[in-house]
TrEMBL record:
Keyword DNA-binding set for record: yes
Presence of the UniProt keyword Transcription in the record: yes
Protein name: Transcriptional activator protein NhaR
MF-aspect GO terms: DNA-binding transcription factor activity; transcription cis-regulatory region binding
Alphabetized UniProt keyword annotations: DNA-binding, Transcription, Transcription regulation
Family matches, as Pfam families: HTH_1 (PF00126), LysR_substrate (PF03466)
Family classification: Belongs to the LysR transcriptional regulatory family.
UniProt domain HTH lysR-type: residue ranges: 14-71
Domain of life (superkingdom): Bacteria
Gene: nhaR_2
Amino acid sequence: MNYLNERNCPMARLNYHHLYYFWQVARSPSLTEAADILHISQSALSAQIKQLEHSLNVTLFVRQGRKLILTDVGRRVLAYAQDIFNTGEELENFLQKGRATQVQHITLGIQSNLSRNFIESFIEPLLESEHVSFSLSSRGMTDLLNGLVNHELDLALTNRAILSESQETTWQNQLVARQAVAIIGPYGDKPNTAFPEGYRDKKWVVPGKNTDIRSSFESFCAAHQYQPEIKAEVDDMAMLRLLARDSGYLSVLPPVVVKDEIQAKLLQDYESIPQAFENFYAITVPRKFAAQSVIDLIQTAINQYANEES
């Protein structure tokens, strides 16, 4: 009996041999290297890819100069191929050694200006797990969202929630952490009088406009009729940390960002800004088969956040 009758089963169109070739080409720096790995000629490999595209009626690559670039569909197909052949390798290991490796690889996208201390805390469960390996990819917001849609990323970490503006994509936002914001300055130089009197002659390095921290700081200053002398605006949290440490100016950021500098008595937490927080979100999109390690990672962060808030 032919279980893959073309009239009854669309899987008959999918040649897994061709799909394997596509997987190797997509992972390799060039067609030449992929052909070397597969021990076939470049022309034969190109023909195999063309046959796969023809059978699926899609375009998987476009050529830019000498490079093959994945199309949007190609990136989606790659995500499925990755799952298929990783599972195949696990099956092979099980048959050879009598046990499955059960090591799952996930890819996390990180908003490029996010606090490194927060990221380290978030991925700590992955570092301690023997069953998960992972990749971190630092990107701008647009690239993060594209990576989620194109199945390049399993999860994205950002400091703002994403609204679903169309029916094409549903963003799943999970608040996984919240950090209080404070005025940070050089150690031992904290004003003796309360804000704003002791801060009249101070200069500031602050987060860029259109951020929650900057908005909270501006509202705080307006409520006290204080006009800060801003020396620099910085979008990148790592650079803001360095300027807070080395410039001698005051800054506004979560103390956890500069916890090492505070412990070393290079910086000091002068005072908290009421109702000012930096929120951290885990962003995902609906998946038929969501990675269990991603689900567990988000839940661990949510539980830790809930315990800290209680």
